[in-house]
Amino acid sequence: MRNPETDPKPFNSESENPFNTNSAESLSTEINSAMENKDQPLKEPLPDIAAETTAHVSGNLDRVGMSNIETVLQMQMSDGQTVWIPAKANAYVNVNDPDAKGIHMSRIYLALQDELQRAPVSPDLIRRTLKRFLETHHELSDRAELNLAFVYASQRKALISDHVGWRHYPVEIRSTMVQGKVEFRLKIDVTYSSTCPCSAALSRQLLQEKFQADFDHHRWLTVAQVNDWLRNNGSLATPHSQRSVAQIEVALDDIVEHFPIMSLIDRVEDLLGTPVQTAVKRIDEQEFARANGENLMFCEDAARKIRDLLENDQSFLDYHIRVDHLESLHPHDATAVVVKGIEGGFTV
Fold first, then answer.
1. Would you say residue 213 lies in a domain?
2. What's the pLDDT at 1?
3. Full domain range(s) for residue 201
């Protein structure tokens, strides 16, 4: 039996055994490599200008980083599926050291790409990413920003028929971390149709004048006569309609657990009543014409409706609403803008 006090201690692994064949071969390889490279000069460390030099002109900077970074992100859709979608990102930190030459942009880029690969976009993922931006620049920065811009795709059903089609909604998520607290902002674009109330009234007037001129001397009319007249003259004048866009940006609470992208889009479309359609048959187009007639609106009307919606939702701390009606009557647009008006919040 082995005496633990007098016998040699056994090797714990092959790597500790100096007589191991693999270790010997490895040592021989290292010796040969060193002999081959003995005449080559030792490589100097790569220069790091950002860390090894100082600024020629000193001063703090509010935002330094990268804009329009091409990337992809994971998004959990309304049906529960997770999909990869292309996106553009802006990533920044500030510089509080007035003598620092610059930041380490590659650290920000690599942290961003690493985090976006891990999980679908969420407030928690963005919090972690911003924290890593600051951890890699702890000696320079105390503020980090991340903006993500992408297109959220959703299938939308036709108004009456069973047809469905895809709609693309531009979305931006803007986030800023200062002293561990994150400010989130969500921006969406909703496209809809608007019919001018003034143009509708003018069209009705022309129709009334035509009806009076045609039947001024008639003492009575049958329903069939009126129906026939409307069939031939109902489109004597039509109000102008146009594609319109509502850009809505809301500030969310720091403790928010998810971004209400689709729920906000749905609520705005239901409120305005005339979202643009995808696949349509004649029965759908007729229903769309009815919806436009029942929801006549100036850009002022649309902006006020959306404002009331956001005012009555306490999850939105602040908001900025811009409505553009891309006029078919004019070569210019009709625009309305409204903000909540809180101190330090969104401005017009």
1. yes
2. 47
3. 197-233
Angle at 223 between CA 219 and CA 228, to 5 degrees: 100
pTM, full prediction: 0.83
Buried b (16+ CB within 10 A) or exposed e, 250-268: bbbeeebeebbbeebbbbb
Q: What is the DSSP string of 83-109?
A: EEEEEEEEEEEEE--TTB----HHHHH
pLDDT of residue 191: 98
User: What length is written for the chain?
Assistant: 348
Give the DSSP letter of residue 60: -
96, 114: one domain: yes
Give the pLDDT confidence score for residue 262 in this predicted structure: 96
Which pLDDT score, from 0 to 100, does residue 13 have? 45
Same domain, 293 and 173: yes
Res 24: pLDDT: 47
Instruction: Give the residues of the chain that fall short of pLDDT 70.
Output: 1-42, 49-52, 55
Phi-psi region of 306 (alpha: psi -120 to 50; beta: other; left: phi over 0): alpha
Which residues 6+ apart lie within 8 Å of 174 measured at CB? 145, 146, 147, 184, 185, 186, 187
26 inside domain = no
In a domain? residue 268: yes
**Given 181, 209, 233, which residue is the final one in a domain?**
233
Radius of gyration for the alpha carbons in the chain, expressed in angstroms and rounded: 33
Q: What is the three-class DSSP state of 211? A: helix
Enumerate residues 6+ apart whose C-beta is below 8 A from 309.
267, 268, 271
32 alpha carbon, distance to own chain's centre? 57
Does residue 275 sit in the same domain as residue 174? yes
Q: What is the pLDDT of residue 293?
A: 97
Q: If you write DSSP's letter for every residue of 225-250 in order, what string do you get?
A: HHHHHHHHHTTSS---EEEEEEEEEE
CA nearest 72: which of 149, 125, 9?
149
For residue 73, what is the enclosing H or E element?
strand 61-76
Residue 248, Cβ neighbours under 10 Å: how many?
22
46: helix, strand or coil: coil
